[in-house]
Write a structure and sequence with these properties.
The chain is of the alpha+beta class and about 375 residues long. The protein has a domain at about 5-70 and about 105-170 and about 260-335: FAD/NAD(P)-binding domain (3-Layer(bba) Sandwich), CATH 3.50.50. Helix content is about 40%, strand content about 30%.
Length: about 375
């Protein structure tokens, strides 16, 4: 059967854009690739959220000339447990790297990736919403809302939506936590140092950005509701109590927003459809691994589909990505569950604080943790 496209990618977020651009870079004809998204480009590039990119993600993005114009490097990551002496410090110097990772705005990353994808010549179909997907032995038909249909040999789901609802879930967990995100400033910032601070209710991350820090503070719903309702001065006092005085005094906070947290992992949908990025696994933000895992999905899938865009390649992709996906999901899920389900001050929470000190002494274990955060499991 002659199809409209070899590959249709549903979702023009970072992972979908990366896949399309990498496919062309690896030799796939751009006119045989369709990239479909429900939003206009103007709608998505204004997104001000902060995101963390690993050093491995920088390598992938730089390879396709899609590195964002503004990105703050992370030279050190300080990991600690509130109320305990245990801590570990991961330093770029130990791994002979220019940075462990980077912090940028979601909109800035989308701008860079969109420029690269448009320049590559792939077919952009936006705004367009996929209403349904029908698979036969030799093609997949996508029904677009008010825009007819198109057919493709392979469909890649790169965002949540209709396909996620149709796919049987292998693992789903709603954590009893909500993330507060904002930008804060302190009186004594330490350049290029990020913090992951484990509190009684969840992780608190500070990522160096714009002469201050991008804040991601995970807590139980009742605590989050209280914190969001506080005036700025009272909120900063609460943050000071939770984080401590390593950066002096917290002096300023931007508008605060909240996001519910959970784990949602999907298998391959069918013989001709595959899920990557958030469509395959939506992770807790602890350690900031969700987007980085998705970019590694795109990198591997592009390598395989550029060689041959046939259904059997999707099975090869699933097997190739299994170790990295499983390890990353297990690590983030275990950390999140300790705080989501254990009572405050429990033995399991205390053991996590103790383990941080052990990590700093046991260099091989620390190296494994650092390499997972920077590159993923190979």
């Amino acid at each position: 059967m002659a199809t409209d496209f070899d590959i249709a990618i549903c979702g023009a977020g970072p992972v979908g854009l990366a896949l399309a651009t990498l496919l062309v870079k690896r030799g796939h004809p751009p006119e045989r690739i369709a990239l479909i998204d429900a939003k206009t480009l103007d709608q998505v590039v204004q997104d001000p959220r902060s995101i963390a990119l690993s050093y491995g993600s920088r390598q992938i993005l730089a390879d396709m000339q899609a590195w964002p114009r503004v990105a703050d490097p992370i030279h050190q990551i300080h990991v600690s447990r509130r109320g305990h002496f245990g801590r570990t410090m991961i330093d770029r110097a130990e791994y002979d790297l220019p940075a462990l990772g980077y912090v940028t705005r979601y909109g800035a990353l989308l701008t860079a990736l969109s420029d690269a994808a448009y320049s590559s010549g792939v077919k952009m179909i936006r705004p367009a919403q996929v209403a349904a997907s029908t698979e036969s032995d030799d093609a997949v038909t996508l029904q677009l809302v008010d825009q007819g249909t198109l057919t493709a040999d392979i469909v890649v789901q790169a965002e949540g939506g209709v396909f996620a609802e149709q796919t049987a879930k292998t693992l789903r967990r709603d954590y009893d936590q909500i993330a507060i995100v904002a930008h804060v400033k302190t009186s004594q910032p330490i350049a290029h140092r990020a913090y992951e601070r484990f509190t009684d209710e969840g992780p608190l991350a500070l990522l160096p950005q714009d002469e201050g820090y991008a804040l991601v503070w995970c807590a139980r719903p009742e605590s989050t509701a209280h914190l969001i309702a506080l005036p700025d001065a009272a909120f900063l006092q609460a943050l000071q109590h939770a984080f401590g005085n390593r950066l002096g005094q917290f002096t300023q906070v931007s508008q605060r927003n909240t996001f519910p947290l959970g784990l949602n992992a999907h298998p391959v949908a069918s013989a001709r459809t595959v899920a990557i990025g958030n469509a395959a696994q939506t992770l807790h933000p602890v350690a900031g691994q969700g987007l980085n895992l998705g970019l590694r999905d795109a990198f591997m899938l592009a390598q395989l589909l550029a060689r041959e865009a046939r259904p059997h390649v999707l099975q090869e992709f699933t097997l190739a990505r299994q170790a990295d996906r499983s390890a990353t999901i297990r690590i983030t899920d275990a950390m999140a569950r300790i705080f989501a389900s254990a009572p405050q001050g429990s033995v399991s929470q205390s053991l996590l604080g103790l383990s941080l000190g052990v990590f700093d002494v046991l260099k091989p274990a620390k190296k494994l943790l650092a390499e997972q955060m920077m590159f993923g499991w190979r």
